[in-house]
Amino acid sequence: MEKQTLRITLILILLTGASCNSDENSRVADLATQQLERQADQNRRMSELQQEVASGSRELVEADAKARQEMTALQREIQAGQNDIGFQRDQLEAERREIADSRNRDPIIAAAITRVAFVVVSLLPLLICWLLLQQKVEPTDKNEITELLLDDLVSTEPRLVPPAKSKPDKRRLTDLPKSLENPSTEKEN
Q: pTM higher than 0.70, yes or no?
């Protein structure tokens, strides 16, 4: 725009110099002066406008910098939140795996305990038999066995040979009347 103003000024000066009439010269000079004043006014306005644009640009740059700082702070907060969520997700996944392992392991342990218990229970009779077989049993006299059988036959509540209930007319030795003299004692004497 300055080049255009310079050209117009030069043209006006040339026109004033080329014209013969001084009236016209003065009029051209006045026009040139007015044009120069207008150009100076436009330059001043342009300068003010450029200053306003510059201050607006500065404010825009400052606002942009502030917005970037705020965005950076928000991004840091979001990243911290995502890290926290990721940590919690990892903990939750570890707990889920632990529960899944427990669910898989517990039935196996229960089955093993049950099998061991069955083996122990099935071996107990064998152990008892083995212990009974390991005991030393001394042979008894025939007299002891005979006395034991006779005592059982004579007793009111036999333990070895139960009383026969099918024939109530048969009498046991205990049902016989007792005499004053005991026949078993007579035999022993």
A: no
Rounded (10°) angle between helices 22-134 and 2-18: 180
Mean pLDDT in residue range 138-155: 79
Q: How far is CA 139 from the centre of its chain?
A: 72
Residue 130 and residue 113: Cα distance in Å, rounded? 25
Strand ranges (E), the chain: none
* Cα–Cα distance for residue pair 119/122, rounded to 1 Å: 5
Domain ranges of the chain: 2-123
Q: Using 50, 70 and 90 to split pLDDT, how confident is the model at 77? A: very high
* Paired tokens of 78: 């979001």
CA 98/CA 92 separation, integer angstroms: 10
Mean pLDDT over the full length of the chain: 81
Q: Cα separation of 24 and 9, whole Å?
A: 16
